[in-house]
Amino acid sequence: MPRSVNSVASRARRKRIMKLAKGYFGRRKNVWTVAKNAVEKGMLYSYRDRKNKKRTFRGLWIQRINAGARMHGMSYSQFMGKVKANNIDLNRKVLADLAMNHPKAFEAIVTKVK
Question: In this structure, which CATH number among 3.40.470.10, 3.60.40.10, 1.10.1900.20, 2.60.40.1120 belongs to the domain 8-113?
Fold first, then answer.
């Protein structure tokens, strides 16, 4: 009995990977084995960095809030402690945006918590 090979599915699988490798440099875009490895590694990086992006943005927001709070004579930790104590339900993303783009509104929050 002859060997049965589903070449349609195999070709489709390779085609999908090669499509994902579009834009890579050198052999990574057109040689199957190299492209497959590059795409797998890229997928791992993208999964990992979707988590890391949340971390880095939180750090950025904290830096911006800290800078805004220090302009009004408070440290970040003092400011956030007083914000929580006064039941102001604004998250770090919103507070950072206010500190950066709307300094008057941020100043109003600072005067309220002082």
Answer: 1.10.1900.20
